[in-house]
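Much of our argument rests on the idea that a fold can be written as discrete symbols. In the encoding step, the backbone of a single protein was reduced to a row of integers, each denoting a local shape. This step matters because it turns folding into a mapping between discrete strings. For completeness, the protein is quoted in full, as a sequence line and a line of structure tokens:
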Amino acid sequence: FAIFSLVYVTSVLGNIMIIVTISSDSHLNSPMYFLLSNLSFIDICQSNFATPKMLVDFFVEHKTISFEGCMAQIFFLHSFVGSEMMLLVAMAYDRFIAICKPLHYSTIMNRRLCIIFVFISWSVGILHSVSHLAFTVDLPFCGPNEVDSFFCDLPLVIELACMDTYEMEIMTLTNSGLISLGCFLALIISYTIILITVHHRSSSRSSKALSTLTAHVTVVILFFGPCIYFYICPFSRLSVDKFLSVFYTVCTPLLNPIIYSLRNEDVKSAMRKLRNRHVNSWKN
């Protein structure tokens, strides 16, 4: 309880700090940081869909959840994960334009396009989630009702249905696999082109771009690693599955503030200015 409470609070406060820092510093008024603040918002949402109940359940002997609550967890999980995948693709496109076409960056990556990217990411996430629930909510659940996880995971819930769920399992794998594989391939292609472009340059600007790029790639690897495993083996029952579920749900939202704060000098500088501003106001 103590460990997960610390991770949860740190994750939520860290992402709130990123949003506040970006919104309060005019030097961070760029498309990359606009998308980053939206990524932090999604991570805050992802931190709250299941973790608070998990923390409360540490003190409850019989851990229960209503059918409506279970469906809500499935909806929110797939909405947030789908939205974050699309937003990571948008951030990769932003870095692609900034590094490969720097002279056209301000023209292409305007505020209108960034808002469109955010709207599309949420729309895809919600549609992805609704497409799952449309087939799940009407399944006949009449037998065992125990989900062997700390939240309602779609494959585990489908297996509780009193019918042959093979077709549902294939549909789930296809639906989730297409969006995750599509986003992952788009990210791999984008970052490969960017790395090749940076490799052919030797300047301080390229060094800064590489540092920013490293942070993005790190988040992508840690985010898509467990995700790809779940969609390759969605109905396996190994002991590592629970560990990855906890990591993906509880720890992944913490990656954003840690990686982008520690590796990004602009964000660290803005945080120091924000801290000094509040310290001086308190002294006065």
